[in-house]
Amino acid sequence: MTQQISSLDTAALVKKMTAEIQKGRIGDHSRKLASEPELMARYDVTRYTLRQALSQLASMGYTYQAHGIGTFVRPRRHSHTITMQNKVNLAEELSRQAHRLETKKARQRTIPLQEAEFLPVGCELPIDTRLIEVKRFRTLDGVPYVLECSYYLNDVVGPIPKDALYGSLFDFLRSQTVIKPGFIDEVISADTLAANEADFFNLSRGAPVLVVRDDSYLNSGQLFAFSKLKYNCETTQLFMFKKLS
Amino acid sequence: MTQQISSLDTAALVKKMTAEIQKGRIGDHSRKLASEPELMARYDVTRYTLRQALSQLASMGYTYQAHGIGTFVRPRRHSHTITMQNKVNLAEELSRQAHRLETKKARQRTIPLQEAEFLPVGCELPIDTRLIEVKRFRTLDGVPYVLECSYYLNDVVGPIPKDALYGSLFDFLRSQTVIKPGFIDEVISADTLAANEADFFNLSRGAPVLVVRDDSYLNSGQLFAFSKLKYNCETTQLFMFKKLS
DNA sequence: AAGTGGTCTAGACCACCAT
DNA sequence: TGGTGGTCTAGACCACTTG
Known about the structure:
The structure is a homodimer.
Chain A: H1 10-22, H2 36-43, H3 47-59, E1 63-66, E2 70-73, E3 81-83, H4 90-96, E4 101-112, E5 130-140, E6 143-153, H5 154-157, H6 162-166, H7 169-175, E7 181-192, H8 195-201, E8 208-218, E9 223-232, E10 237-243
Helix pairs in contact in A: 1-3
Chain B binds a DNA duplex through residues 7, 9-10, 35-37, 45-49, 51-52, 54, 65-71, 180, 219-220.
């Protein structure tokens, strides 16, 4: 028996409660959780930490708090929905659900700004900016999943090693001491498939796709990457939870 | 001069700061806001309230807080993006930006569950459920904006007065004392336009549209409505802000 | 009235960035 | 080292639901 010497922080509590929810080890028959005072005692955290955690769980769609009634575990959704408002990697969440995300093809080259297929959604770049273009085809459990085209500012990130291309680019960037990712703007739209894109998805030309464009910024506020992701919307949807008032 | 007798709560502070940001009355030349201690003094709120407000402003994409650096006003986005994570009505936000949202056509009828064009995304309903179907065509500043098909559980909401159909259905429901809206699940997807839908948007058949399906629940956790909204994705995108770590 | 979650206070300490 | 935002404590009071 190892003894718990320091109490849990919010992230650890979220992780713990998430695991217990997924194992069904939390909540009674009506999916009602214990009250906040009881949970505070059980996890040995203060109300602040508990409520931070419950708020994160709610935003991920795992729980719902009803004023004057209680806290409830929510029914599970289909696994192939992407929860926006997620604090963790998509890859990380998928692997936790025992899904296998693979990069089938990846290509990298350095180009001037003019040759980019699209520009950032939310800001202007100097015309002499040099970009690293990365194109990837990724599958989920062997099924065509996402078509990705990203541009990284050459001056900020530098060349990307080949193995990072096939793993998590985000983890690679975080491991670079110079790069302190701060925030991401996402713009969601729709489009139809061109012929060559349709091949990858085994869909026909003109089929609808969900388009997610994002601009990634350093903590300092400087843009360091922007990209466009195309998802097969027949197999993938985006999920969002909104609490009212 | 009226004197401020009670200090601001979070919602009031958000409103005040939002207004000041939109008028450009906040932040210096580099868009940097005053530090938290200064803001606490200026608005006469505690740190808790201030940070709740700043957190809401950030989630709406108005500001960004950089650890160890400061808080910054972010450049304004195009006005025709819908900010998810909004605490307020879409109609309310649009009118604040001086946009004019109009309902061009609205139809209401009561039907059995079987005749619904689609079902809720996240839960099952008894087969004998009776629904109120509402179809609306709405324009923004005179331009085709959204095609809406909603179903309300007849037993929960009852008939909807005609003038509510042409205004905000949400405000009508909130005014009903029985209805306590609690939360909404949204699932975002893409589709292509059918011929009759294309007419409304002045687009051609097969053009891509952004599809937002939502399930609305009472505070008690019971479903009371579900709907499908189709947006012209050439003029409307969804926006989302994600802070990292 | 009792129990639930929602908001707020006042203060402490920590982590990050600049100098 | 001093100033910034990020996290946490311990407690108070309020608003909502149910009996």
